Amino acid sequence: MNNKNYKYARLWWWDKRFDYNKGLFRAGFIAFMLYNILGPIIIEPHEEFDETGVLVIVHGIAYLLIVCIANVFYTLGYLTDICFNKNNSSLFRQNLFAVGYWFSVSLPIVLVLLIMCQFLFL
Question: Which of 16, 29, 63, 72 is exposed most, by the fewest CB atoms within 10 A?
């Protein structure tokens, strides 16, 4: 890749970062809602389920930290692009973004569902 391609790749990944973060916050909201809807139904019969205002704040702060960590991994997408996309292929870049995006967006929801499954099969 020449210098012009590096710059294009960097700008492309920078422009997509907002979409990535928007997806992360939407997934976090969905995971939070699933946890609060399914928690009393699935967890309560096994142990006390309580989501207080303080816990909401703690979970929110923890999720913001996780979003920051996810953005560090997002940068790995750019580094992978410049290392392995020798032809500056737009399709390669879009597929790489899509794989990382859907993995990152599905992770919070899958984790909540795994927690619920743990209590379902106790």
Answer: 72
